[in-house]
Amino acid sequence: MAVINIIKNNNLQNSESLYEDISNQIDVTKKIYSTSHLYKTGTLEVYINGLLTKPSGDFSEIINTKSFILNIPDSIFAKILHEYSTLIIKYTKA
Q1: CA distances from 29 to 21, 37, 81, 84 (A)
Q2: How far apart are CA 58 and CA 55, in angstroms?
Q3: What does the alpha-carbon distance between residue 4 and residue 89 come to, in Å, rounded to a whole number?
Q4: What is the residue-wise DSSP string for the chain?
Q5: Which one, of 38, 52, 37, 56, lies nearest residue 86 by Cα?
Q6: Does the reported pTM lie above 0.85?
Q7: Which phi-psi region, left, alpha or beta, contains residue 46 (left: φ > 0; alpha: ψ -120 to 50)?
Q8: Please, which residues bridge with residue 30 across strands?
Q9: pLDDT tens digits in sequence order for the chain, 94 residues long
Q10: In the β-sheet with 67-70, what is the strand arrangement from edge to edge?
């Protein structure tokens, strides 16, 4: 909950950036995840359990879509998931 509270506070301070909790999309076998809106290329940030992932390493943007690919191997992703896992994204709308 602390991560979500911080995100809500940041939304008030920075109206250009959107934060979304897409934790309901988490699936060890899933590679493609979606945002609610188109985002500007290069603005996407992905946080797994509060940790910022690396663009072009841990995830790849799918240009001109509302999607991105999570590049974390299934075996590693399965180890970091738990009942209260979170997948939070930050981006600027296109």
Answers
A1: 19, 23, 12, 18
A2: 6
A3: 11
A4: -HHHHHHHHHHHH-SSEEEEE-GGG--TT--EEE-SS-B-TT--EEEETTEEPPBTTTEEEETTTTEEEE-S-HHHHHHH--TT--EEEEEEB-
A5: 52
A6: no
A7: beta
A8: none
A9: 444 555 555 554 455 889 999 999 998 888 999 999 999 999 999 999 999 999 888 999 999 999 999 998 888 887 887 778 899 999 999 8
A10: 32-34, 67-70, 59-62
Residues in the chain: 94
For tokens 């509060």, the residue is: 50
